[in-house]
Write a structure and sequence with these properties.
alpha/beta, Rossmann fold, twelve-stranded antiparallel beta sheet, seven-stranded parallel beta sheet, about 30% helix, hydrolase, Helicase_Restrict-Modif_Enz
């Protein structure tokens, strides 16, 4: 006997909606025909339908069992409220009858609303039902019943972006023989888990806007304030009353992040506004919620207050005002929420309005959506479509991977490469003879894969590791770990990228040997090009190799907000660049990027496989582009970048271990007896012979010695290796250890060589001159009262102040583009000058103090105050953005008066300058004189101030304007 849906298939019609007649919209026609077409050749696959909120997704969901002539269907909904609505839709078929898809006389299907987990007393109701509607937990309980698995031939998932959650996924896996259709407006999740299935129809938001389904939206920002809830509530009330006065039947939704917040907002709106609102949350019964919704539809309420209860599956197009007290932080939830208000299928409605606090720091998909100048209409459409496009592209890319070992296919069906998100890290080699079908070394212990993508020369595998815990020395207790390996070959550069969670030189070397004929590392001056085509750098971790100090610090590591500030020209004379890790901007998007001398590049970002390969290729293309000139416009540029070693100089006289070796010295063992010898830094190194292509050395400790040869490619050769080194949990040969931590060689003319890199230095370090006191003829030329710092009503008769004179001196300097006066509590400095030079922007802060002592260089109190202010003020010159922000804040409070130059022009000018941002501090204190003997204590204070300021970062100069 035919099923209910098969019997009524012939009654189904496809009328098109028009101005005169109700019917199916374009989106609904496209979706239902796509479903019908897809399942003619895909009997048990998963179909994904993407339709924006408000485009009629529910009608398509109700039509689907008719077009597929289903026998029995299971509909899974995200909430009780939506479950109730879908049950009502199937029971009455009101929507399909209203739009003339089904006749009014049609017999209705038998529908069972499953309100609890499966029990035997429900069995008869389920058996006789044509449609069972359930929430996830109830749906899972029925999918676990063996007798029902084959009875349901169609599963429909509403709001499918929930599918990757464990419950939803198990339902789909249990119903593996059924047809499955997933409906969603947002086919992506905040947790980056994949929605498995085939995109068979995607109705873009831009088309919905053109078709008049997705209406106009407007963001109304509220200035940041402690009373934001009150301000949002009052603005919502004002807009609601104004819209009603204009004749619009608009209603309000107040959005809160939690039930307690919703209760607080309910009290706020009740006491501070005249709006009649009701609160809805998941603790209420369905009966209570339906009652409140009925009051809303009957226009007895002005609106509702809720958390997420009406976020999905709720259709009330007159909801047009949103008071967003707590914004969503994911794109999916934001789009779902906005979609509720952008519907157009009602009369007497206007633009949807969203009221929220201006919050530049809330970033959604790299976009500050809640900033004051955000144009939501454009941003929302672009965010939605670009995200869906990426999701579709990602699925297509993953489908290109195949498992060559056919016996593994079934075991690995549930392992989706879509869910793999490696952190952006790679070891790079220049290779010849790439072999895609190489075999992973045994140490990788590959359990899953290899998965091979021949289109872009990529191999993915997952290996298992079994190691004893660090607290256990026996052999019986093992921790199981899974390790990801990704190998990618970039054909146009011949770079092989290796991603390995086990960051061991031994593993890298074994992998590159397995997948290439020959290889070599990449020199740092080439790796350095990954910093090319970026701007607004902030370097927060860097290393520097000391080319001159043999007995002390050989490698300095700096970490902090912007460590480049601690580098000056003198540093560049002594050190060469080691590793670096920084923030920067690429095409207005902030990224992180780092590299090291071991041919490694990395970022703090995690990416899909497709984006990871794009990241590799992007950086590889830069590395082998000799036209790229790296300029960070920070003090990091003072550090010379080592060049590639072409041959060993004959005047090498010293060999030493690397800085990393000294930082974390490894234990060394005798290979034969497995007995510990000592630390690797306990060994002595002696050079035996130097030629153009090789260096021969002997490494020894007591009677134990090993002869080593190192070539210009940084490879170490040892015959009959007797020594092994404990690296992590593995014991590796000394030659492999030295390949990862290469020795440092020094020459008699201050050249340093490490690995494949050579650094040439200049021993003439720049020393800051002791003549840092500038004499100003205060009395003789300007007639200044040096005991008067500034004029006010009380002191106007005391003569010309130091500030007056300083202003006159500054105005005489025609090179200055801006002069700012900021004398008051909380000042940046008394005066600030900005000069736009050819290659840098120089900002000088002037701190002025009057002379209280009778004689020059006689009062420490005169010195302490002005030097203290000088030191404290360097915080404002930390970065260009910090300086600009402080100027803006001071301007808002009525300070920072522009004595020369225009403020608005200044903001545009400084922002657009792609120049090095440099600072200078000037202490203006007539009490200090270079012509009078200076007590030792005053000298100490000034010297300490100068040293602190000159090593603080952006500020590289400290001057005293004295007498």
């Amino acid at each position: 006997m035919k099923s209910y849906f098969a019997r009524n298939y012939s009654k189904l019609k496809y009328p098109k909606s028009s101005d005169k007649n109700d019917g199916l919209r374009n989106a609904q026609l496209g979706a239902i025909h796509s479903i019908s077409s897809f399942f003619t050749v895909n009997k048990s696959k998963v179909a994904i339908i993407v339709m924006p909120t408000g485009s009629g997704k529910t009608a398509v969901l109700i039509m689907t069992p008719y077009v597929l002539e289903a026998k029995k269907i299971l509909v899974v909904t995200p909430s009780r409220l939506v479950r109730n609505q879908i049950t009502e839709e199937y029971s009455t078929l009101d929507t399909l009858i209203r739009i003339n898809v089904l006749p009014n006389s049609i017999k209705k299907p038998k529908v069972f609303e499953m309100k609890k987990l499966f029990t035997e007393d429900q069995e008869n109701s389920i058996n006789i039902a044509d449609v069972v509607v359930a929430t996830p937990q109830a749906g899972l309980s029925i999918s676990n019943v063996e007798s029902f698995k084959r009875k349901f031939d169609l599963v429909l998932i509403d709001e499918a972006h929930h599918v990757p959650a464990k419950t939803w996924t198990e339902i789909l896996e249990n119903m593996n023989e059924s047809k499955k259709v997933l409906f969603t407006a947002t086919p992506f999740r905040m947790d980056n888990k994949t929605i498995k299935g085939n995109f068979i129809y995607n109705y873009p938001l831009s088309q919905a806007y053109k078709d008049g389904i997705f209406g106009e939206i407007q963001y109304i920002p509220i200035a940041a304030d402690e009373n934001k809830d009150f301000l949002i509530a009052k603005k919502a009330e004002s807009i609601f009353l104004l819209d009603r006065e204009k004749g619009y039947e608009h209603f309000l939704m107040v959005r809160a992040s939690s039930k307690p917040r919703a209760k607080d907002l309910e009290d706020l709106y009740a006491t501070e506004t005249i709006l009649n609102l009701k609160r809805i949350d998941s603790s209420m019964s369905i009966k209570t919620m339906n009652q409140y919704i009925k009051e809303l539809r009957d226009k007895e309420l002005d609106g509702i207050i809720c958390v997420d209860m009406l976020g999905e599956g709720f259709d009330f197009p007159n909801l047009k005002i949103a008071a967003v007290h707590d914004p969503h932080k994911s794109l999916a939830n934001t789009l779902q929420f906005i979609g509720r208000f952008a519907r157009t299928n009602a009369s007497n409605i206007d633009v949807a309005k969203f009221i929220a606090m201006n919050d530049d720091e809330l970033i959604i998909e790299n976009t500050a959506l809640y900033k004051s100048d955000a144009i939501w209409q454009e941003i929302i459409i672009d965010l939605s479509e670009s995200k869906i496009e990426r999701e579709e592209s990602e699925k297509e890319y993953i489908s290109e991977y195949v498992i060559e070992k056919r016996n593994q296919v079934e075991r690995e069906m549930n392992l989706s490469l879509h869910t793999i998100k490696p952190n952006c890290h790679a070891k790079l080699y220049k290779v010849l003879g790439f072999n895609m079908h190489g075999t992973f070394p045994e140490i990788c212990n590959v359990e899953y894969g290899p998965y091979i993508n021949k289109e872009d020369n990529t191999i993915v595998a997952i290996g298992k590791g079994f190691e004893s815990p660090k607290w256990y020395t026996g052999e019986f207790v093992k921790d199981e770990e899974n390790f990801l390996y990704v190998i990618h070959f970039q054909e146009k550069t011949n770079i092989l990228y290796i991603y390995s969670q086990v960051k061991s030189e031994f593993i890298y070397e074994k992998i590159v040997e397995a997948f290439s004929q020959s290889y070599e590392k990449i020199a740092k001056h080439e790796i350095n090009r990954v910093l090319g085509n970026l701007n607004d750098f902030e370097i927060f971790n860097s290393g520097m190799m000391n080319r001159f100090n043999e007995s002390g610090e050989s490698y300095r590591i700096s970490a902090g907000t912007d460590v480049s500030q601690a580098i000056d020209p003198s540093t560049g004379k002594l050190y060469s660049a080691g590793h670096v890790f920084c923030k920067a901007f690429s095409d207005e998007q902030q990224i992180t990027i780092g590299y090291s001398s071991g041919s490694k590049i990395w970022s703090s970002a995690y990416a899909s496989l497709k984006d990871y390969i794009k990241w590799c290729d992007l950086n590889g293309t830069k590395i082998f582009n000799p036209e790229i000139v790296v300029k960070t416009n920070t003090n990091f540029d003072f550090l010379p970048i080592p060049k590639r070693l072409e041959g060993y100089p004959s005047n090498i006289y010293l060999a030493d271990f690397s800085g990393d070796t000294y930082t974390n010295p490894s234990l060394v063992y005798d290979r034969d007896s497995d007995s510990m010898i000592g630390l690797i830094t306990d060994f002595n190194i002696k050079i035996l012979e130097v030629s153009n292509d090789f260096i021969t050395l002997i490494v020894s400790m007591g009677e134990i010695g090993q002869t080593i040869t190192c070539d210009i490619n940084g490879k170490y050769y040892i015959e009959d290796e007797k020594i092994v080194v404990l690296e992590g949990r593995h014991k590796i040969s000394l030659s492999l250890y030295l390949a990862d931590y290469p020795l440092i060689f020094r020459t008699t003319d201050d050249v340093m060589i490490q690995g494949i890199e050579i650094s040439k230095g200049d021993p003439e370090a720049i020393v800051f001159s002791d003549e840092n006191i500038i004499s100003i003829p205060w009395k003789e030329k300007y007639g200044t009262n040096v005991t008067l710092e500034f004029k006010n009503k009380k002191t106007k008769k005391k003569g010309k102040s130091i500030q007056d004179t300083l202003f006159e001196v500054l105005m005489d300097n025609s090179n200055l583009d801006y002069i700012i006066y900021d004398h008051s509590t909380g000042e940046i400095a008394d005066f600030i000058t900005i000069e736009n030079k050819e290659s840098e922007v120089e900002v000088i802060l002037y701190h002025v103090k009057a002379m209280s002592a009778k004689n020059f260089n006689s009062s420490l109190s005169d010195i302490y105050e002005v030097t203290g202010q000088s030191v404290k003020s360097i915080i404002w010159l930390k970065t260009k953005s910090t300086f600009l922000q402080k100027i803006k804040v001071r301007r808002k409070s009525g300070h920072c008066e522009f004595k020369k130059g225009d403020y608005e022009v200044f903001l545009r000018d400084i922002k657009q300058q792609d120049k090095l941002f440099r600072g200078k501090i000037v202490a203006v204190q007539p009490s200090i004189s270079k012509s009078v003997a200076m007590p030792e204590k005053i000298q100490e204070v000034l010297a300490a101030t100068r040293y602190y300021i000159s090593n603080s970062g952006k500020v590289k100069s400290f001057e005293i304007w004295g007498s």
